[in-house]
């Protein structure tokens, strides 16, 4: 790979042909994929969040089932984290009624408040939260990044850092913006510099709270694993266009739309290559109505209410406040430190960028 050649992950190199179809043809291809997989693997479960992507997904699945009456019903599950808008809960009920299906609500053993108290608060993104959480736990000095950057033989320096800090490889890669071979990887999402000036910011203003995205594991992932046992296919509404962890290849990903997991189950992501424009076309064409969170409050995404991973979290809470003030109060009580720290980071970043431009 030449110095000028940009690193491209499997998300780009393994794209299926239908990923580049126009919206009508793309959704017809997706229906065919859904039908083919459900015929072969009839015992399927689908996570329904009450969000826009889930609304497109359930409509696609039920339209496909209407076209192929031999298809078995899909099990739909809504995971209640303990911090959900009334608009979302009401929409889940309305959607079940609309399609004549049951959407079962499941709650975690450890809710969002308990999970944050136990592990920490998300900050910026899941990737950044994971990296900073490990850095806090391992106590590795940020100065290793400077050592690595100044080293002529970066592979040798990476090896020496591994010996100096055993069992800390992922943190070393994260802070030094490199891979395990010591090769620089400054432009990928898995490193601290994926957020501009972040390493300098935390050096100057160390966080006074524990950072972690484990609340997602407790409130959704672990619960989902328990609920999904015994099913052949797990259907989710992940889209690459959302970015973050959803656009990063994982061990169970090859084609990224349909893969076999370590447990022997299959994971189907019908919307993986659906763009924002594709989704808007589908909504308009089929007259899909999203929840009041979108249609009335004016949100563009929902997800976990108030989650600090969204850069719009504080602004979105202000949109929610006139309708559900108690939810907003709860979100600030749970995530407030992260909101304030992110605001400080944004101000720091703006000043650095202005200084570089000579403003």
Entry summary:
It is built from 15 helices and six strands. It is an alpha/beta fold.
Topology overview:
Layout: H1 10-13, H2 23-40, E1 44-47, H3 52-67, E2 75-79, H4 86-99, E3 103-106, H5 112-119, H6 126-138, H7 144-150, H8 154-164, H9 169-176, H10 198-204, H11 214-228, E4 233-235, E5 258-260, E6 266-268, H12 276-286, H13 292-295, H14 313-320, H15 325-357
Parallel strand pairs: 1-2, 1-4, 2-3, 4-6
Antiparallel strand pairs: 5-6
Helix pairs in contact: 2-3, 2-12, 5-11, 6-9, 7-8, 14-15
What would you note in describing this structure?
The protein has helices at residues 10-13, 23-40, 52-67, 86-99, 112-119, 126-138, 144-150, 154-164, 169-176, 198-204, 214-228, 276-286, 292-295, 313-320, 325-357; strands at 44-47, 75-79, 103-106, 233-235, 258-260, 266-268. It has 359 residues and is of the alpha/beta class. The protein has two domains: 10-116 and 213-299, Rossmann fold, CATH 3.40.50; 124-204, no CATH class. Helix 3 links the parallel strand 1 and strand 2 (75-79).
Question: Which descriptors would you attach to this protein?
Answer:
359 residues, alpha/beta, Rossmann fold, 15 helices
Q: How much is the radius of gyration in Å?
A: 22 Å
* Straight-line N-to-C gap: 37 Å
Look at the structure and give the CATH class of the largest domain. Answer: Alpha Beta
Order of helices and strands: HHEHEHEHHHHHHHEEEHHHH
Number of strands: 6
Query: What general form does the structure show?
Result: globular
Share in β-strands = 5-15%
Low-confidence residue ranges: 1-9, 244-255
Mean pLDDT: 90
CATH topology of the largest domain: Rossmann fold
Structural class of the secondary structure composition? Answer: alpha/beta
